[in-house]
Amino acid sequence: MLSPDDAYQVREMLGHAQLACRAARGRSRPDLDSDRMFQVSCKRFVAGFGEAAAGLSDPFKAAHADIPWHQILAVHNALVHGAVQVDLDDLWDLIDVRLPALTRTLEQGLHD
Description:
- By secondary structure, the protein is an all-alpha fold.
- The protein has one domain.
- The protein is 79% helix and 0% strand.
- Helix 1 (4-24) packs antiparallel against helix 3, helix 1 crosses helix 6 (88-110) and helix 3 (36-54) packs across helix 5 (69-81).
């Protein structure tokens, strides 16, 4: 059964993922280069997604080992701490391809 804390964190992840996907709707990869506000918004939404993931319990993460937790946290750390430059191609791929798939998986996790 999903703990209340994990349920909260998953809902936070879903909210940030939905915001990122909504911001990208009707946009394209070159927009990340030309529109600084769009780029900053996308980075913030993805960072929020990772921040919520960091708050999940180890048992939840173990039960959903198909989700790339290590990569999610690595992107979060790069965005928040700036130690590594985030590649905009990778950011676009995350928002355009991977977040929609992760959203479906997380929604299922809410109902486990």
